[in-house]
Design a protein that fits this description.
alpha/beta
């Protein structure tokens, strides 16, 4: 059983207690893990991902920082006021950048920038923080994400939600933006299956691939087979498969 340290504090950004579960040694490359939709910091443990990378954690290859979400107030709150939902998601983004990352750097001793990672809606969260702040992350590993925020709001958009919709803000990023060069210094993986429940993930991953390639941003956009469903059995295989690349252990 992999040891876990659970930390929490009252977030000033969100005005609520938020939990973080830490797995692995402080010498490992830090990975900021976002759970699947509506889930919390125990998500990776509950569905076997911690067991899948237990050896990597034990030998100090990686250190996972698994965070809570407020998805039930934002992306999943389909009957809620859309402007309030967008503001709440932006507050969550601020919590990650202004509260979680400084804590992560205090706890981790590798000297490495973290990798943002997540499956399903966690993949969207990982893409948001990475593509908005590539100066703060060394890469992104997003599995089965949906990268169009409008999918969750019946097509509605405002300036705040725009900043949390990678397909939208990247589409309008000038090709001479300094972040373009930063992206190309990072490791970007967007992967999706083509089986059950992957339709929207497949659609938006393809659009992200076209968009990134069109701006000469190097990224590994990978479509797995028609038997690859939107499910943990496949995400565990994909996470382990792409880990050496995002850790820069291979060319």
């Amino acid at each position: 059983m992999t040891n876990c340290t659970e930390i929490n504090w009252h977030s000033t950004r969100l005005d609520r207690v938020m939990n973080i579960r830490i797995y692995g040694k402080a010498s490992g490359v830090p990975i900021l893990v976002f759970p699947t939709q509506d889930a919390m910091s125990d998500n990776f443990e509950n569905f076997g991902m911690i067991d899948a990378v237990a050896e990597d954690l034990a030998r100090g290859r990686i250190q996972l920082f698994c965070v809570d979400t407020v998805d039930t107030e934002t992306w999943s709150n389909i009957w809620g006021d859309k402007e309030w939902r967008a503001r709440r998601q932006e507050a969550y983004y601020g919590y990650i950048i202004d509260e979680v990352l400084p804590f992560l750097h205090k706890e981790n001793q590798s000297g490495r920038l973290p990798i943002a990672a997540g499956c399903s809606l966690g993949g969207l969260h990982a893409a948001i923080v990475f593509f908005r702040r590539p100066d703060l992350f060394d890469g992104v590993l997003a599995l089965s994400g949906v990268y169009d925020a409008k999918f969750f709001t019946d097509g509605w958009m405002n300036e705040t939600l725009y900043d949390n919709s990678p397909l939208d803000f990247l589409a309008h990023m000038p090709t001479d933006h300094p972040y373009i060069d930063l992206y190309n210094q990072r490791r970007i993986v967007l992967c999706v299956g083509q089986g059950r429940w992957e339709e929207e993930g497949r659609r938006t991953t393809a659009l992200m691939g076209d968009l990134l390639y069109g701006k000469d941003i190097r990224a590994w956009i990978d479509f797995w087979g028609y038997d690859v469903d939107h499910d943990w059995d496949w995400w565990k295989k994909q996470f382990v498969y792409f880990l050496p690349f995002v850790l820069r252990e291979q060319a």
